[in-house]
Design goal:
The protein has 913 residues and is of the alpha+beta class. The protein is built from 28 helices and 31 strands.
């Protein structure tokens, strides 16, 4: 007895009480922990005679001797969870006497005095269901028996909620009115109340041979006066199946003659087993450690994965472990594994999704290996893994794990049929990596670089492949040549090999080099070692025949670049030599348009990353297209960052849109980032035939005049790019042909003078616009006035300027003394005809041209050739004038003319002397 009692804990004691109530068909158990005693009340059946007989002995069943010497049969429980009369004795943990009342009768068990042979009459329990158990607490220690103190009571209560999961969760079924629904524990000493409520509801199951039950447990844990709201503690679904017991199977002795508990025996010859999974937030809880239930949970009974098993196991004497070497247990565990696999395929994948597989992975060391081993066998050999393949009705094709492959990388998962791969939804989902690990542990094979090379190269029996498969599977194409000619497949191989490039060994590369499995540019399969790696950007502009070139798809950026086929397997093409040949052809004019375009594309594709000698040769030839699509030398191309990029655009070469954002190429070719004087000169020439650009160009020229040197200014001076007339906007003049507007140029040439239309005088001066009138232009101006019979507007300004102009041009001031350029009272006359003196005889004053006697004008005209005193020429002019006046007249000379003529003769004579 002592050994039995001390083999239990307080939680075990509660378990025994709940189990007894379940066996009695009760639904409610109440444990009232008062100040000095505990009272247990249930609402199940009353104790029958066999029950009272079992209570009359302290331990065991069978034949018992009474005090009068007679014997009687003490039968065990039939078809119930408990089989003997041990459970109630666990109450000796808290007290020395256990009183039991039920159905109007009462008995007890006393640790020291045993139990009476017959129950006594108990009027308090007449006509009421269930059983009442009363135990007074032990108030002092007695050897190994402790007093039941508040501290021990606290320890018991703290562990009860967790313990109920083991002892109560399987004790309710939706199809039965019985079954434990509520467990209530009330502690007066600790002012604590715990209420455990559980209910089971049927769940629709697609497989008719399987039933499903959802168990939901809520708990309240608080004080007696303040009990909190129900809290969801756990939820699980149990899947049950009724299985016939093979006739050849030996049932354990405790189960013979139909002694399998009714809980597990739907009818004679069959047994019901259940597998259950926990739910967390509506999802499968794959981290919950599954237990063995009988239907009480075995604390030390782990299934090894997240699935719990509920079955009538053959247990050890303490009902704490499964019996080892039990054929019955092995059979139950195998059937549980079969049910698990069936539920996985027919229910869980639809109900819970891919994470269902994770419920089957090993997460703990099982106490019995048979179930977990059977699960592994089924996963390996049974069609339970969803693949990418679909049946005609759209259903997913299932395959055993040993028929599946798991690619080491995503690039390697496109070479076999869809029924060889896990369904994409599973593989790429949240738990994809863990599911793949489970598949590999269940017999799937890794499809890695060895399998990839083998599949690509193993074509005919006469090709000895060097690649060793090791543990990887070896697959081949039934139509090797026809399959590998497809560009899409070759591209997939290219991307896959690129992804595992670091793992390629010399043997791998040799197989790729020697096998006739690489696509050439003409669409035929060739040995990789016989092909040249010609960049498809160069294309047909290179001299290598397509049958000797690697197919362009191996360079396609959509599939990455299979560098090992290009650089380690195929023969290299000398791009630098080819570029120099085409560059030389451009210089000599022998390069074809195809070659030139191919070189251009190749330069862009490589960002100008060439050898220094190649780069230098390319810079000296027009190998790039500018923004206008015209060929230009790289050294002549200007960066868009250069100043005045818009106003000088017509004469500058900017990067083409093909490489406008390629800063690396621009840096290698050293595109110009500064303007040069030649750019402005070129623009000036362009403006001379595009007058609408003249105004903007003047602004650019003004902003960038600092870059111009003297020779640039001189050249610009001769180009007709300046505006001078608002009326004639199409007419431009060279700076050297225009005048700066000042008092000299405005006065000396009248309206015919041409001035720049703008106001940038400093710029115009640098450009060589004339600041002082030219002799020729002044004379032309005077000639125009003479022809229009107009006087000179400002003669005292114009003629001094003319004198100065003659001096500046290093001409004699009297160069025009004989030309009629001076406006006088007698019209335009040569300076030589003019007398400037005011004391000349009246005859000369009448006959010789006169000017206004203003000093500036007089000085200028004298400088031009006029005379201050009469010369013979002037006297001749005077006498000729008077003679012409009276040449045809018959009348005598007028007295006034006579006087004037006499004065002239006297003055002439005086001067002659």
């Amino acid at each position: 007895m002592d050994e039995f009692v001390h083999g239990h804990t307080y939680s075990d004691m509660v378990t025994e009480l709940i189990q007894n109530e379940f066996d009695a068909g009760g639904t409610h158990v109440e444990l009232d922990l008062a100040a000095h005693h505990m009272q247990v009340t249930g609402n199940g059946k009353i104790i029958d005679q066999n029950g009272w007989n079992r209570l009359s002995v302290m331990l065991g069943t069978g034949v018992a001797a009474d005090s009068d010497g007679s014997t009687r049969e003490i039968p065990p429980k039939h078809g119930l969870i408990g089989s003997k009369n041990f459970g109630l004795n666990s109450l000796f943990l808290i007290g020395d006497r256990i009183d039991v009342a039920s159905g109007g009768r009462h008995s007890f068990k006393d640790r020291f005095h045993g139990a009476p042979e017959r129950p006594e009459h108990d009027p308090q329990t007449m006509n009421r269901p269930g059983v009442i158990i009363h135990v007074e607490y032990r108030n002092k220690e007695d050897g190994d028996y402790d007093s039941f103190t508040p501290d021990l009571e606290q320890q018991m209560l703290d562990g009860l909620v967790e313990h109920f999961e083991y002892c109560a969760v399987k004790l309710t079924q939706p199809t039965s009115k019985s079954g434990i629904k509520t467990i209530e524990v009330i502690s007066d000493r600790l002012d604590r109340r715990i209420v455990w409520k559980q209910e089971s509801t049927p769940v629709e199951c697609p497989d008719r041979s399987t039933t499903a039950v959802e168990c939901t447990v809520h708990v309240q844990d608080g004080t007696g006066a303040d009990l909190p709201n129900l809290r969801l503690l756990l939820k699980e679904i149990e899947f049950q199946e009724s299985i016939p017991i093979p006739a050849s199977l030996r049932i354990p002795a405790s189960f013979k003659d139909g002694e399998i508990p009714k809980y597990f025996q739907p009818r004679k010859g069959r047994v019901r087993i259940g597998i259950s999974v926990r739910l967390a937030r509506g999802q499968l809880d794959v981290d919950h450690q599954g237990l063995f239930y009988y239907p009480l949970g075995l604390r030390a009974g782990r299934t090894g994965n997240a699935v719990s098993i509920d079955a009538p196991f053959n247990l050890d004497s303490n009902r704490s472990r499964l019996r080892e070497d039990s054929e019955w247990n092995d059979w139950l565990l195998e059937r549980a594994a079969d049910l698990t696999a069936k539920c996985l395929v027919r229910d869980w994948l639809e109900r819970f999704g891919p994470r269902s597989f994770l419920a089957l992975r090993k997460i703990a060391n099982p106490t019995s290996m048979r179930y977990i081993e059977r699960i592994s066998e089924l996963l390996e050999k049974d069609a339970c893994w969803p693949t990418r393949s679909r049946e005609k009705n759209g259903r997913t094709v299932l395959r055993p794990a040993n028929q599946l492959v798991v690619p080491v990388r995503k690039e390697l998962d496109r070479f076999l049929g869809p029924d060889r791969y896990l369904d994409s939804v599973i593989e790429t989902g949240t738990f994809g990596e863990e599911i793949k690990k489970l598949a590999l542990a269940s017999g799937a094979k890794i499809f890695g670089v060895n399998s990839l090379v083998y599949l690509r190269c193993k074509s005919t029996r006469d090709f000895e492949i060097e690649t060793e498969l090791n543990d990887e599977p070896g697959f081949t194409y039934s139509d090797f040549s026809g399959s590998l000619r497809h560009e899409k497949l070759q591209a997939q191989f290219a991307e896959a090999f690129e992804s595992v490039r670091p793992q390629l060994t010399p043997k791998h590369k040799n197989d790729l080099r020697m096998s006739i499995s690489t696509l050439a540019a003409d669409g035929e399969l060739k040995s990789g070692g016989d092909l040249y790696t010609v960049d498809p950007v160069i294309g047909d502009s290179c001299p290598v025949d397509p049958s000797e070139r690697l197919h362009p798809l191996f360079w396609n950026s959509d599939y990455k670049v299979f560098k090992d086929i290009r650089n380690g397997i195929c023969k290299p093409f000398e791009e630098n030599s080819w570029m120099l040949d085409v560059s030389g052809g451009i210089e000599s004019g022998t390069a074809t348009p195809e070659q030139r375009d191919g070189l251009y594309r190749y330069i862009l594709s490589k960002d100008g990353k060439f050898r220094p000698a190649t780069l230098k040769a390319l810079r000296e030839q027009p190998v790039l297209k500018d923004h206008r699509g015209q060929w230009a030398k790289p050294g002549e191309i200007a960066s868009r960052q250069i100043g005045a990029s818009r106003s000088l655009e017509p004469v500058l070469s900017f990067p083409n849109k093909d490489y406008a954002k390629n800063t690396e190429l621009q840096g290698r070719f050293k595109f110009r980032k500064r303007l040069q004087g030649a750019d402005l000169i070129s623009m000036a020439k362009h403006v001379s035939s595009n007058p609408d650009l003249a105004e903007a160009f003047e602004s650019s020229l003004q902003r960038h005049e600092s870059i111009l040197k003297k020779r640039d200014w001189n050249e610009l001076s001769e180009i007709a790019f300046l505006r001078w007339s608002e009326e004639d906007t199409e007419s431009l003049q060279a700076p050297e042909d225009l005048y700066l507007k000042n008092q000299f140029t405005e006065s000396a040439m009248g309206n015919q003078v041409r001035f720049p239309l703008g106001s940038s005088f400093k710029l115009y001066r640098k450009l060589g616009c004339m600041e002082f009138p030219a002799v020729e232009d002044i004379v032309e101006y005077l000639e125009g006035l003479k022809q229009e019979d107009l006087g000179v507007p400002k003669p005292d300004i114009v003629y001094p300027i003319l004198v100065r102009a003659l001096e500046l041009e290093e001409m004699s001031t009297k160069s025009y003394s004989g030309e009629p350029i001076v406006g006088t009272n007698k019209g335009y006359r040569p300076p030589n005809d003019i007398l400037t003196g005011t004391k000349s005889p009246k005859l000369l004053q009448q006959a010789v041209p006169q000017i206004w006697p203003r000093k500036a004008l007089v000085d200028a005209v004298l400088a031009l050739g006029a005379h201050e005193r009469p010369s013979d020429h002037h006297w001749a002019m005077g006498f000729r004038w008077i003679g012409q006046k009276y040449h045809q007249s018959t009348s005598p000379i007028a007295p006034g003319d006579r006087t004037m003529l006499g004065e002239a003769y006297r003055s002439r004579g005086a001067r002659a002397s």
